[in-house]
Amino acid sequence: MKKILVVDDSSTMRKIIRRTLRQTGLSFDDVLEAENGVEALSVLAGDPAVRVVLSDINMPEMNGIELVTQLRTQHDSSALGVVMVTTEGGEAMVQTAMDRGANGYVTKPFTADAIKDALEAHLG
Amino acid sequence: MVESHLSADATRQLAAEELVEVLKDCVREVFVSMLFSFDDADAAQLAGDAVPAALPTNAIGEESGSEPAAKQDPGDDSAGEFDCGIEVEFTGAVSGAVVLRAGRTAAEEITRSMLMMEPDEVLEDEDVQDALGECVNLVAGTLKTRALDPLGTFQLGVPGPLDPANVGPTLGDGPSATGRSQVYRLSKCSFAMEIWTDAGSAEGA
After folding, report:
1. d(CA B67, nearest CA chain A) in Å
2. CA-angle at B78, arms to B43 and B36, nearest 5°
3. How would you write the pLDDT of chain B (205 residues) with one tens digit per residue?
4. Does A36 touch chain B (CB under 8 A)?
5. What is the DSSP letter of A102?
6. Is the pTM value of this prediction over 0.90?
7. Which of B114, B130, B137 lies nearest to residue A87, judging by beta carbons?
8. If one looks up domain A3-123 in CATH, what number appears?
9. What domains are there in chain B, each with its CATH number?
């Protein structure tokens, strides 16, 4: 089983990402959703089939940087891909995310190709 | 820091000359990539060269002389009359907000396009608020990256409903008079994507 977890506080963006994932042609079995980092950790704890997380950065309760930091420092997440999908396009934020352990960074608005490129290595 | 050597005049000039042009590019990029009912003709309109209801723009921080957009074809719900609005505030060397104002028809058309909904699918108010919020958030984020970040450190707020007193009913009303306006047209209706700046914010840069 190959599952993708979409983490975004906007239900609209979660729907857009779901639709975009279908357009990529990538092979996966299911898409799960969480509204913030806290929910994401809960989902991940209960479902080891998640291969990759697509996470927004600016979210209430636990943001995407805090999420990837927790995943890399407090959980065995070496096999889990984490790709940030955010409107934050500044170089400093990209560097911060990668330094904390993100595997990829996609800036909104995005194309299906950008999402596909970021996910391919984790769903192969 | 970049802003440390920018005078208030320089900040104002940069903002005044660039922000609205960048806004148009940002709106086009967001709408073409995220609103799936848009075609090439819509994209051309979003580029700003064929927008029938385009408004004169005014220097940011100065009083506006914007006139309400003229009424369009019958069936237009709001070529200048809006009943809902969403804003994303930005703070930094220049403070203000990116604002979307729309009539109900335009708001629903944007939402259905973003969510790829069928015409007969029921649209909840919550869907409309969230979709418009995400739309403004995308435009504001793109604007921040392209135009604001080079001016210094800026922070974006979260999308929120506009104070009803500021929604309209027409362009040029209320606090929007201190900002710039550009009206964009969807297939049968209009919406305004605007940059509002806080009066005097550039002087504090």
Report:
1. 32
2. 30
3. 333 344 455 455 455 556 777 888 888 888 888 776 655 555 555 544 333 333 333 222 222 333 333 334 444 444 557 888 999 998 987 788 898 988 888 899 899 888 888 878 889 998 999 999 999 999 999 988 888 877 778 888 889 998 877 776 555 554 444 456 667 777 667 788 888 877 655 443 3
4. no
5. -
6. no
7. B137
8. 3.40.50.2300
9. 2-204 (3.40.1550.10)
